[in-house]
Amino acid sequence: MALSFQIPVSALSQHQKRIEVLSKNISNLNTFGYKGSRMTFMETLGSVSGVTQFQFQQGNITATGRTTDLAIDGDSFFILKNNYGENVYSRLGAFDVNEKGQLVNTDGYVVQGWMRDITLANPSFSKSLGNIVIDANLKKPGIATKNAYLTGNLNSGIESVKEVWESATAYDANDNMISSSTVTFPMSVTSGVNDEFNISFNGGVAENVTVSAGNYNSLNALVAELNAQFSTNANLYGKVTAFNAGGILQIRNTAGNDGDMMTLTAGTNDILTTMGITPATSTYREASTSTEINSLLQVSKGLISGDQIIITGKDSEGDDISASFTYGAANDGTTVNDLLSVINTAFSGSAEATFEDGKIVLTDLVSGESESSIGLVVSSTSTGSLLIPSFTNSAEGYTAKVTTSLIAYDSLGNSHNVTIDFIKPENTVQNYGKWKWQAAVGGDETIINGGSGTVEFNSDGDLVAFMYDGGVDSFSIDPQNGASPINMKLQVAAQGEFSGLTQYNTVSSVEVRDQDGAAAGKINGIKVETDGSIVASFTNGQDDVIAILAMAKFANPNGLDNIGAGNFLESADSGVAKLGQANAQNSEIISESLESSTMDLADQFARLIEAQNAYQASARVVTTIQEIADQAVALKR
Predict the structure, then answer these.
(1) Per-position b or e across 353-372, b if 16+ CB within 10 A of its CB
(2) How far, rounded to the nearest angstrom, does the alpha carbon of residue 549 sit from its chain's CA centroid?
(3) CB count, 10 Å around CB of 125?
(4) Is 564 helix (H, G, I), strand (E, B) or coil?
(5) How far apart are CA 259 and CA 454, in angstroms?
(6) Could you give the C-alpha distances from 572 to 51, 53, 82, 576, 612, in angstroms and in order?
(7) Among 89, 125, 361, 459, which has the highest number of CB atoms less than 10 A from its own CB?
(8) Nearest alpha-carbon partner for 362 in 401, 315, 418, 293
(9) What is the pLDDT of residue 281?
(10) What integer pLDDT is reported at residue 372 of this predicted model?
(11) Which helix (H) or strand (E) holds 476?
């Protein structure tokens, strides 16, 4: 009879435990990371026993939006260190950062992993497990720039221009005029007797000139009268001028073109003979380099040996030019070419003077913006007189240049401004497709080497070569602040989704799309990658891995010892933990999420009803046995 009671009583006890297990499962329906338990029964001699087992199936992943909430997609466990220094294992990744910067769970257990010291020159991970610490004061050292990536186009259609100054008007040779012999004054002019002559151009209609009657006591008086008459004739005004050339009367063709002819012929009442002029024809011709200076139309009084033409101006760099041409065969010479030689000596290395179409032309040797200027004037102490045309700036110097800039960083994280100019030389066969480049720095820094070079393109506008002057392959800057030199390569070839440099006939636009240096930065946030890497973001825009979460995997996770709050201890039944990174454990870490409870409410209620029925049945067996016992006692009575 005792055994009859023992069996249902033990069943009652085990079914009660099962109800407790199911109640716990149901109450943790919304507990993140909760793994349900089940109870199985087995027959033993004279009783019923139950075994409670955990069920470690994957729970749903629920987003929380909290960076330190981590869910495991897979069958591994987080590793934590409890207050006794033991390794504790958990699927619940509701972590936070404590006052020490440690990543901890709600019990204060510290998450374990491998830390990486990014302050070292060559950062590496710790070899042994340790506390994951996220230091709020962590700083990332500066990164020296090693590469700067350029992209854009250099316009093939632009061209550099040399600065040019030239005489405002051309110098004329003396065959542009007809001269008189010596005239005796006073000279008498009588109306209807000796007061007329004719002027025609290129065989055209002759224009009559009538000189006012009267006595002319000087050549200047005669010149004034002739010019007055020229001015009243619309066909002569501005084209013909009378001139006193050192006591010689000259009638000059002043407004012709190269090859134009001016002819003087006697009028009905001829005055040419009275003025000492023989009827003649002059040809308008500009002076050449071989023309004698005293034969220039602009000379009103011949220069004598020792007279000086003062040369002033500035070279292309803005430095003052001061020189003088001394007239005379025994001095600097007597021809236009001799004057050019002295000008070229004065501007040596900066500009070159030539004589083109009767004009002195000063052209810079190098194209680009310039401070050049030139002026000529006869010395006030000279005897001769020369009307020198002023100079005009006929072509302003222009550098066909495309400029870009970048911020480069040294080994201490200090920034340095670097400007890069791409300069297009004059278009010549030798320069086709070639550009010069030149770098400059903006402070106390100095360029050690490689700060200039050339870029070459083919006929399709594609990059052929990018070269550094001096036989080097990089651009080096001494920061002058204690940091190591910046050794930087300018990357101009197409890479990935970015194009490099091209030379097409379209708008120039070059920019530095990226560079790989950075200033020192302070941590301002973290994120956790799927492999368990903890990546810190810094105020300098850089990201870097500072730790990796350690994960554990067990041969039999159902054999772990449950110590509550979603924490487990290794046991003999679970086997020894296999440690590794998440991706090596067939797992992924999902950041800003938690794993939901694995409990199914409908299933648990159904099982609870089963447990309740079993409990009631066992209780009924006990009462039945009790009734039988009572009947047996009654029989004895």
Answers:
(1) bebeebbbbbbbebbbebeb
(2) 39
(3) 13
(4) strand
(5) 49
(6) 17, 15, 20, 8, 33
(7) 89
(8) 315
(9) 85
(10) 97
(11) strand 475-478
And the tokens for 324? 């003088």
What lies within 8 Å, CB to CB, of 175 at 6+ separation is 282, 283, 285
Is there a contact between 213 and 189 (Cβ–Cβ < 8 Å)?
yes
Residue 552: C-alpha distances to residues 35, 87, 122, 527, 563 (Å)? 17, 10, 28, 21, 17
CA distance 334 to 291: 9
Lowest pLDDT segment from 94-108, 177-191, 579-593, 619-633: 619-633
Tallying the residues shown for the chain, one arrives at 637
Strands 187-189 and 214-216: antiparallel
Encoded tokens for 288: 């050449």
The H-assigned helical ranges of 191-260 are 219-231
Single pTM value for the model = 0.58
Contact by Cβ (8 Å): 510, 423: no
Count of Cβ atoms closer than 10 Å to residue 35 Cβ: 24
Are 312 and 374 in contact, with CB atoms under 8 Å apart?
yes
Q: Are 62 and 52 in contact (CB under 8 A)?
A: no
Average pLDDT over residues 597-602: 62
CA 86: distance to chain centroid?
55
Q: How far is CA 588 from the centre of its chain?
A: 40
For residue 607, the one-letter residue type is R
3-state secondary structure of 35: coil
- DSSP of 127-187: SS-EE-B--TT-EEPPB---EEEEEEE--TT---B--EEEESS--BBGGGEEE-----SSE
Cα–Cα distances in Å, from 623 out to 14, 15, 307, 626, 628? Answer: 18, 17, 150, 5, 9
Torsion sign (Cα): 569, 572, 576, 582: negative
Dihedral (Cα; 87, 88, 91, 94), 10-degree rounding: -100
